[in-house]
Design goal:
The structure holds two protein chains of two kinds.
Chain A (H helix, E strand, L loop, with lengths): L3 E12 L2 E12 L3 E5 L6 H9 L6 E6 L2 E2 L10 E4 L11 H11 L4 H14 L15 H13 L5 E5 L7 H18 L2 E6 L2 H7 L2 E6 L2 E6 L1 H6 L4 H6 L4 E7 L3 E4 L3 E4 L2 E2 L4 E6 L4 E4 L6 E10 L3 E7 L7 E6 L9 E6 L5 E3 L2
Parallel strand pairs in A: 3-8, 3-9, 6-7, 7-8, 14-21
Antiparallel strand pairs in A: 1-2, 1-4, 4-5, 9-10, 11-12, 11-15, 12-13, 15-21, 16-20, 17-18, 17-20, 18-19
Chain B lengths: L3 H42 L2 E3 L5 E5 L2 H6 L2 H33 L3 H12 L6 H12 L4 H8 L13 H26 L2 H9 L4 H30 L2 H6 L7 H10 L4 H30 L6
The chains are: A alpha+beta, B mainly alpha.
Chain lengths: 346, 297
């Protein structure tokens, strides 16, 4: 395991009555592709701005390697930020935009030229070097912004919603591109995003944030299969939730009986969470739950079936391979592997 | 033969053209009657001989242009350009920081500050200029105040100097400098400054490499808005300059109203128009360069 490069410890930030960051602690490892994921207003951008030095936290500390980051002014931090709007300088050519940060370091002309040429080749914009930002497409601007940040060879690269301004197709392309670049340049990436697909597909680890609090830090797979709380279970992917009282074997739900589940809390009030693809359609004699098909949706490789269960308000979602074999109004029986159901207390 | 469909399209196009004229009409009428026709008149007067009691005689001549290079007129024009330039530089020095500060105020205070900037415009220009006579004269509050605190022992001759003219012009046109600069600073995306900072630029460096170039087009508009009317103003030099400082505006007025030499007045007016066109062309060229439009590498 890599050692932590950046340690965020107990960071809080208040804007008047609003708590933007509430005692946030996260360790980011060297060469990691780390994502801060959460709905808008969850504090992820504020955290990014604290790291970049545009906001100073009201409490807590941030260390990069061995040095305290908060003591450094924003223009002296070995951290670069790729802005959501890209913030390219409109009055400068692509080349000059990229060279700007190197000039501030006081490097020689030849070195600047070499490094700019090299980085423009890396992002595939060699032939656009003398263009102005206004003459580029969205994807090209994004690459310039990226080139301008990585040419500084920062210890940490922050990316604020890097793909949000791009259309769907370009976005998928750039996701792969970002991952490739991260491996190639060997810089630690911290991506802020509200798009869980983006975070899941790119990041090594993800911190899920909500209302200024870090809810869980885990790998995409763990986040999906072992959510630590209801927010994470609900925010990442879709899930079915049943509230009741936990025991060793499962959760006792009023009107539905004992729903099996062996992972998580074994006592007290709990919510049983099951992913739609973990639920099977079974014969009546194996049934845990029985319901009526409300709707079926075919989404290409798989289908999602929405069921109404008596005594349960929310529709239960079931995903199955291929097209759905059931039709609307049909009565179906459900069961799941008890080790796939998680009992959460919050 | 045109098909019915084509005829339909033609009618539609005519209607669209008609609609366009309804909207363009008033502006077009204004520009034609109050700008184009007077400009053509001034231009043609410049090439005609003067009439005995004003007006023009319908005889072609270039003499009016030769007279401009007589030393007395060259010195008036030079003096005018000097005064207008000093006024513009001072307006820039005061106006830029003011506009910048207003644009950085919390949003709710910005409008109040802008109202305060244009507040003097609510009072008649002559009255405001007369007020400066009261302020600057040897018995005025400025002299009295300075003597009272012991900085001066006898009153300074503030009024009827070139300095007084500059002060009057500066006072009159400073808002015209502040407003366009404010507009361009306010429009500036703050994330550009943050990006520059993030890339290692100090505050001063970010200002000179990002803020200043990007607000230059607005700043130049402000400079032109101050320079041009300062150059042509004839009230301030007369009231605050005491007739000792003659500017091109006074000269033009006198040619038309006193000397009754309309053709020469027209030539002087044309010089100002030419200067204005050159300044705006320069502003447009620089603003194109900065915005990076129309140049495809």
């Amino acid at each position: 395991m890599n050692k932590p490069l950046l340690s965020i410890t107990g960071v809080s930030k208040f804007f008047g009555d609003v708590t933007a960051l509430d005692d946030v602690s996260v360790d980011i490892r060297e060469n990691e592709f780390f994502a801060l994921l959460g709905p808008s207003g969850c504090g992820k951008t504020t955290l990014l701005r604290v790291l970049a030095g545009f906001e100073s936290p009201d409490a807590g500390s941030v260390t990069l390697g061995t040095q305290s980051l908060l003591a450094l002014p924003p223009n002296k931090r070995p951290i670069n930020l790729m802005f959501q709007s890209y913030a390219l300088f409109p009055h400068m050519s692509v080349e000059k935009n990229v060279a700007y940060g190197l000039q501030r370091e006081g490097l020689g002309k030849d070195e600047i030229r070499d490094r700019v040429t090299e980085v423009l080749a890396t992002v595939g914009l060699t032939d656009k070097a003398s263009r102005r930002p206004a003459q580029l497409s969205g994807g090209q601007r994004q690459r310039v912004a990226l080139a301008r940040a990585i040419v500084k060879r920062p210890q940490l690269l922050l990316l604020d919603e890097p793909l949000s301004a791009l259309d769907r197709k370009v976005r998928a392309e750039m996701q792969l591109e970002l991952k490739r670049l991260q491996h190639e340049v060997g810089i630690t990436f911290v991506v802020v995003t509200h798009d869980q697909d983006e975070a899941m597909s790119m990041a090594d680890r993800i911190a899920v944030m909500s209302e200024g609090v870090v809810q869980q830090v885990a790998s995409p797979v763990d986040l999906y299969s072992r959510p630590e709380n209801l927010f994470v279970a609900d925010f990442i992917g879709s899930s079915n939730a049943f509230r009741g009282t936990a025991s060793e074997a499962g959760v006792q739900v009023e009107g539905l009986g004992l729903l099996p589940g062996t992972v998580g809390a074994s006592a007290g009030e709990a919510t049983l969470v099951i992913r739609p693809e973990d639920i099977r359609l079974v014969d009546q004699d194996q049934a845990v739950l029985t319901g009526n098909v409300v709707d079926t949706q075919f989404t290409g490789g798989s289908s999602t079936i929405a069921l109404s269960i008596p005594n349960h308000a929310a529709p239960v979602l079931v995903t199955c391979q291929g097209s759905a074999s059931v039709t609307r109004g049909e009565t179906v029986h459900l069961a799941w592997d008890e080790s796939r159901a998680i009992k959460l207390t919050k | 033969m045109t098909s019915p469909a084509a005829q339909g399209r033609g009618a539609e196009r005519r209607r669209a053209l008609g609609a366009r004229f309804i909207f363009l009409g008033p502006g077009l009428f204004y520009v034609t009657v109050f700008m184009a026709i007077p400009m053509v008149l001034v231009l043609s007067y410049a090439f005609l001989k003067r009439g005995r009691f004003g007006g023009v005689k319908m005889e072609f001549t270039l003499d009016n242009f030769h007279r401009v290079i007589e030393s007395v007129y060259v010195s008036v024009i030079g003096n005018s350009i000097l005064i207008a330039t000093i006024t513009t530089i001072l307006a820039l020095a005061i106006g830029y920081p003011t506009a910048y500060a207003i644009a950085r105020l919390p949003r709710k205070w910005r409008n109040l500050a802008l109202v305060l900037v244009v507040l003097p415009f609510w009072t008649n220009f002559l009255i405001r200029t007369y007020a400066w006579i009261l302020l600057l004269n040897s018995e005025g509050p400025l002299n009295k105040g300075l003597m009272a605190v012991g900085i001066l022992h006898e009153p300074l001759d503030l009024l009827y100097t070139r300095g007084a003219v500059v002060v009057g012009l500066l006072y009159a046109y400073l808002p015209l400098m502040i407003l366009p600069i404010y507009a361009s600073v306010e429009r500036l995306d703050n994330s550009l400054i943050e990006a520059a900072t993030n890339l290692g630029a100090s505050r001063a460096r970010a200002f000179f490499t990002i803020t200043l170039p990007l607000t230059l087009p607005g700043t130049m508009i402000g400079a032109i808005f101050v320079f041009v009317p300062s150059l042509g103003n004839f009230i301030v030099p007369e009231l605050l300059g005491g007739g000792k400082t003659v500017m091109i505006g006074n000269l033009i007025r006198d040619q038309f109203l006193k000397a009754r030499d309309w053709p020469f007045g027209a030539v002087l007016a044309l010089i100002m128009v030419a200067l204005l066109i050159i300044l705006f062309a320069g502003q447009a060229a620089i603003s194109r360069r900065i915005n990076g439009r129309g140049r495809h590498a």
